[in-house]
Write a structure and sequence with these properties.
By secondary structure, the chain is an alpha/beta fold. It contains eight helices and seven strands, in the order αβαβααβαβαβαβαβ. Bound molecules: zinc ion. The site of zinc ion (ZN) has 5 residues, from strand 1.
Length: about 200
């Protein structure tokens, strides 16, 4: 890798899984492109599909805690309830991988991490994970629109928000191959957030 190439780094993130239909397809496409990503998993789906979490970790991807039931009002909860929710989700992940899982990140559902959540993350040694590119793939704007939105906004240090769960993600899967081709062609390398 050249010095110039080193500056071209980005992070792919996938939210709201694991999902038995879409997560395996996303994993296969990432593998084909030698790409790693962060998967922001929901505790109750981890409970339902633990093998998919195992596969995700075994493939070299990183996990992110996305609450137990995708709580859209998370930052309005008491600190105690936030800790309980995050811990319950972590326990579900640990149980899925059969040991103490490495889960460095937390992503708040539907929004950037809000100020009231930050002290809780600090107390649990979690890093907030926001994003810089949101193609709103969940709104199903068409695979082409998802591709154009992501590739049109690529910047060094970008964090791309996509979804492998929470609904019909066939457009996201259809877009992903072209997105990965475009990222490869632009000379980007995949890193975890904050890594150089
Ligand atoms: Zn989400």
């Amino acid at each position: 890798v050249t010095e110039t190439g080193d500056r071209y780094t980005l992070t792919l993130t996938f939210d709201d899984g694991p999902n038995p239909t879409y997560t395996p397809q996303v994993l296969a496409l990432l593998h084909k492109h030698d790409a790693t990503a962060v998967f922001c998993v929901v505790g109750q789906s981890v409970h339902d599909y633990p093998q998919l979490v195992q596969r995700t970790v075994a493939a070299g991807h990183t996990l992110c805690n996305h609450t137990y039931a995708h709580d859209g009002q998370f930052s309005k909860r008491t600190k105690q309830d936030m800790v309980r929710d995050i811990s319950r989700t972590k326990e579900e992940i640990d149980s899925a991988v059969g040991g103490r899982a490495t889960v460095p990140y937390f992503r708040q559902p539907n929004t950037y991490v809000q100020p009231s959540v930050m002290p809780v993350l600090e107390s649990l040694d979690l890093r907030p994970l926001d994003w810089t590119i949101d193609p709103r793939d969940w709104s199903r704007p068409g695979a082409d629109a998802i591709v154009q939105s992501v590739l049109g906004q690529l910047r060094p240090g970008a964090v791309v928000l996509l979804h492998d769960g929470g609904g019909d993600r066939s457009q996201t899967v259809a877009a992903l191959e072209q997105i990965l081709d475009g990222i490869d062609a632009a000379g980007y390398r995949y890193v975890m957030p904050g890594e150089k």
